[in-house]
Design goal:
Elements: H1 5-23, H2 34-56, H3 61-90, H4 93-107, H5 111-119, H6 125-128, H7 136-158, H8 163-184, H9 186-191, H10 193-210, H11 226-246, H12 259-272, H13 278-283, H14 286-293, H15 295-315, H16 320-343, H17 353-376, H18 403-408, E1 435-437, E2 446-450, H19 452-468, E3 472-476, H20 495-512, E4 516-520, H21 530-544, E5 550-554, H22 569-580, H23 592-605, E6 612-615, E7 631-632, E8 635-636, H24 646-650, H25 653-663
Parallel strand pairs: 2-3, 2-4, 4-5, 5-6
Antiparallel strand pairs: 1-3, 7-8
Helix pairs in contact: 1-2, 1-14, 1-15, 2-7, 2-10, 2-12, 3-4, 3-15, 3-16, 3-17, 4-5, 4-17, 5-7, 7-10, 8-10, 10-12, 11-12, 15-16, 19-25, 21-23
């Protein structure tokens, strides 16, 4: 297939959008859709290459995969090795362990599966701070390469005249599955091949249209008039740019909105196929072609170095944007070096090819061994034994499956003790009232509602109720809120199940009519404006308040300013001790004003809801200077940056005991 410069120009547009978005998401909020541009372009190129070879009678499955290996694997291996080295030398041990784990999945083309299973939502902190998160898209492409050539070969043999029709049908089927999944199962819809394959198939269908097997010409099918191609290309290019500017991250992607960058890319590809339009000439300019040639290398290198730069900026007290910009620049420079030193030399198909494959094989083996060796190392968060082992007993009180907490414990809480959960324990205890302890007989007199922040106080509340002979029920589930608007997550994989959970909580309160309901959540994630929070709280109280004697709003403990919980807290303390020689001061993060506003809103609502009171569980965790009181002696009060350990929850015992006694349960 003849080299086409405008295709490199399209690569340049896509990778620049991704680069800007990763350096500063606010600067180009839809820049992540550059990946969707890559998907369509990859589908177009792969199908075109195969169709050209089939027409010439020279297609070889073995040769196809050899070229893919030479094109994709060397730079990928070097990137993973560099990440392992940098993280082992300069980053805390738990992040190194995670990088090694992810690296092993990456070199076996399974990064998208890893991110889906272990990091979760693309826009959540775990994925945002992993140095290899961006390789999820490479996993999708490489899995596509495993199945598409064989399918196209079968179509060419048995349905040569209907290849385009079959590809369009497959595109529609995958897109329909995507629309179905993105509503009820958004995470797998984002990360898995069946729900993203339609984007590559759009490009493949276009290639089948422009290069049909029965075409007698060596080039593409004769296209439309140049001015018509020009208009089509401009519409497509405008769609791509508008997607970069206006599409926002979050739920619902990829859904219907993903048609904007993908169809736009297909229109641009159609327009530049004959290289006669102004757009094709712009995309063929030396700067665009040069960036496009480096695009794969830039894509590989920019993200881990941005993450490293941001992490170092945080550790040394510098603005995060400084680290992002420095990391982005370093990533582009290293991309150029590895393109010249690694990518181009190992792509050659001439003499010495067997030696190049030997080098790639050795590189693969070395990378795999390094990942395994690092995985076998046991990270130590607190080598100086500054603290006793912190414990988090909340999992015993979860009314759901608790999967979110176990995943989080791999990095930020790997040194925390979690009691083992019985293997036969139902994952939907909420259907039968949650975790119920009838210490006083009858219906539960105290009910605990909330998220993992409710779980962290549950053992203390349970112990108080046991001592006082008060029946208690725990209806808290990780990653859920107090308000009856439970999102789809690992505990509630569909909107239907989430709604059933909300209804079950309402039904239990109506049935039990408890004396006291504790409402506990991470309030600073519940709202951005006080008015919205007030409306949600009032709606909740209007439904709950008549069904109980007392409603107690529990103020949220301060959150350690550790930048989205990048580090394990004990590791962060160890780093500061090593550099400063003293225990560090931690101050509340930038959401402190939201937590204070939540308390103010709840206090104001006590005038309307007479049985509402505020429990200031946050007060034991402030020092006089405004810093966070996160330890005493050898007790660390925090399991991670925002969850209290069991010792931390004990600091609020007297407050909870007073609230339960004041409610006078059972009277």
């Amino acid at each position: 297939m003849r080299y086409s410069p405008p295709l490199d120009g399209i690569r340049a547009v896509a990778v620049l959008a991704v680069l800007i978005f990763h350096i500063s998401p606010a600067a180009l909020r839809g820049g992540f859709t550059g990946v969707d541009v890559f998907f369509v372009l990859s589908g177009y190129l792969i199908a075109s290459i195969i169709l050209v070879d089939l027409r010439k009678g020279s297609f070889s499955m073995g040769e196809f995969y050899k070229r893919r290996i030479q094109r994709l694997l060397p730079n990928n291996l070097v990137t993973v090795l560099a990440v392992l080295l940098i993280w082992a030398l300069f980053m805390p041990p738990s992040t190194t362990l995670q990088a090694a784990d992810h690296g092993l999945w990456t070199i076996f083309d399974l990064s998208n599966i890893y991110v889906w299973q272990y990091l979760g939502d693309y826009w959540e902190s775990a994925a945002k701070w992993s140095p290899l998160t961006h390789t999820w898209s490479l996993g999708i492409e490489e899995q596509y390469y495993l199945i598409f050539p064989g399918c196209l070969l079968l179509l060419a043999r048995f349905q040569a005249g209907r290849i385009r029709s079959w590809l369009i049908a497959a595109t529609a089927l995958s897109f329909a599955l995507c629309l179905l999944m993105v509503r009820n199962h958004p995470h797998p819809a984002f990360y898995l091949l069946p729900t993203r394959m339609w984007e590559l198939l759009i490009g493949a269908a276009l290639a089948a249209h422009l290069r049909p097997l029965h075409n007698d010409h060596a080039g593409i099918r004769p296209a439309l008039a140049v001015h018509t191609q020009e208009a089509i290309g401009l519409v497509g290019f405008a769609a791509i740019i508008l997607g970069f500017i206006f599409i926002e991250d979050g739920g619902g992607f990829p859904g219907l909105i993903a048609l904007v960058p993908t169809v736009g890319t297909a229109l641009v590809l159609f327009s530049v196929a004959e290289e006669k339009t102004l757009l094709s000439r712009f995309l063929s300019t030396p700067p665009m072609v040069g960036i496009g040639a480096l695009s794969y290398s830039i894509y590989l290198w920019h993200w881990p170095l941005i993450i490293f730069g941001k992490a170092q900026a945080f550790l040394y007290g510098k603005p995060e944007i400084y680290g992002s910009v420095a990391g982005g620049i370093a990533g582009v420079l290293l991309a150029g070096c590895t393109y010249v030193a690694v990518e181009r030399p190992l792509r050659g198909r001439g003499p010495g090819r067997s030696r190049r494959f030997a080098v790639i094989a050795i590189g693969f083996s070395v990378t795999a061994v390094c990942c395994i060796v690092l995985l076998c190392r046991r990270p130590v968060a607190d080598p100086a034994h500054l603290f006793d082992t912190p414990a988090f007993l909340g999992e015993e009180y979860s009314a759901g499956n608790g999967e979110g907490s176990r995943v989080a414990s791999k990095s930020s809480r790997y040194d925390v003790y979690f009691p083992p959960v019985a293997p036969d324990r139902p994952v939907d205890l909420w259907r039968t009232g949650g975790v119920v302890h009838l210490y006083g007989g009858g219906h539960p007199q105290v009910v605990v509602l909330g998220s993992s922040h409710a779980l962290m106080y549950s053992n203390v509340i349970d112990d108080i109720c046991r001592q006082m002979g008060v029946s208690v029920a725990f209806l808290g589930v990780d990653q859920t809120g107090v308000f009856f608007k439970t999102p789809v997550n690992s505990s509630f994989p569909t909107a239907r199940v989430a709604n059933e959970f909300d209804q079950a909580r309402k039904d239990r309160l109506r049935e039990w009519h408890p004396d006291l309901v504790f409402v506990i959540d991470r309030w600073d994630l519940s709202f951005s404006q006080p008015q919205g929070f007030d409306a949600s709280l009032r709606s909740f109280l209007s439904e709950v308040s008549p069904k109980t004697g007392h409603v107690v709003f529990v103020a949220q403990a301060p959150v350690v300013d550790d930048d989205d919980h990048l580090f394990n807290l004990r590791e962060l303390i160890t780093w500061h001790m090593k550099h400063d020689g003293k225990m560090p001061l931690f101050f509340p993060d930038r959401s402190e004003h939201l937590r204070r506003q939540a308390i103010a809103v709840a206090e104001a609502d006590t005038a309307t809801f007479q049985n509402l009171s505020i429990l200031r569980a946050d007060q034991p965790f402030y020092n006089p200077d405004g810093s966070i009181r996160y330890y005493a002696g050898k007790s660390c009060f925090y399991a991670d940056g925002d969850h209290l350990s069991e010792k931390g929850a004990e600091q609020a015992r007297d407050l909870f005991q007073s609230a339960i006694a004041k409610a006078n349960p059972g009277s």
